[in-house]
Amino acid sequence: SFWLLVTKGVQSSGFMLRRYDFRVNGVSGIDVVAPVTVLLLVAALSVFLYVSKFGIAMRATAEDEFLAASLGVNIQHVHVASWFLSGALAGLAGAIIPLMTGTSINYSDTLLVNVMAGSVLGGLASINGAIVGGVIVALAKKTLTYTLMTTLGTWVGMYEEMIPIVLLFTVLAVEPNGITAIRWREVSVHGVKDSLRRLRETLRNLLTPG
Fold first, then answer.
1. How far apart are CA 175 and CA 183, in angstroms?
2. Of 8, 74, 115, 135, which has fewest CB within 10 angstroms of its CB?
3. Residue 110 near residue 23 (C-beta atoms within 8 A)
4. Would you say 83 and 61 are in contact if contact means Cβ atoms under 8 Å apart?
């Protein structure tokens, strides 16, 4: 949209590239390529961060930058590599998303909430957790919206984008480290009740004026 505005002087609110996608037996290529790409990226990043020396150095820098530097890690190279990986993955996402759904200039604002909710839900320190959290957020958005629309009315549909915000707030109030940090064997009814009590108190404090 920015390129069109600068080079052609044409304002664009957004675009969708799905009609440029290839199809095999009626199935869109991106519906197959995107999940496979995600799985390959998760595997590659896991090997890179937990096996390779440079990946371990990046994790050490994230944990304690000064300690990593004292052990001989080149902090500048780590920061450059981190920014490169972030930009590359963001660019890949930007190439995939218009092939799946319509975008707009403000689309990144909506996407950011979903991404943050999924990342926090799965655990910021876990690659696999981010995938699990993203799937849960997506399913929760569609399932809860459909359920509420059938019971309360179609007007609930306009509040669909609030569901990730509610999930994000709930996770931060109950378990800030995400579901991957939960020790499921130690989960008890008392612990769940205590978490719900703390969530209720947090909501009360936020909603109480003054």
1. 11
2. 8
3. no
4. no
H/E stretch holding 28 reads: strand 27-28
What DSSP string describes 55-122?
HHHHHHHHH-HHHHHHTT--HHHHHHHHHHHHHHHHHHHHHHGGGTS---TTHHHHHHHHHHHHHHHH
CA distance 76 to 82: 10
Dihedral angle sign, alpha carbons of residues 116, 120, 124, 126? negative
Q: Is 164 exposed, middle or buried (0-12, 13-18, 19+ CB in 10 A)?
A: buried
pLDDT tens for each residue of 156-174: 888 888 888 887 777 777 7
Distance of CA 45 to the CA centre of its chain: 16
User: What span, in angstroms and rounded, lies between the C-alpha atoms of 118 and 38?
Assistant: 15
Q: What is the pLDDT of residues 106-140, one digit of tens each?
A: 777 778 888 888 888 887 777 878 888 888 888 88
- SS3 for 156-168 is HHHHCCHHHHHHH
Q: Of 134, 114, 112, 113, nearest to 179 (Cα)?
A: 134
Q: How far apart are the first and last CA of the chain?
A: 44
Amino acid residing at 108: S
**Residue 81: pLDDT over 90:** yes
Can you tell me the distance from the alpha carbon of 130 to that of 128, in angstroms, rounded to the nearest whole number? 5
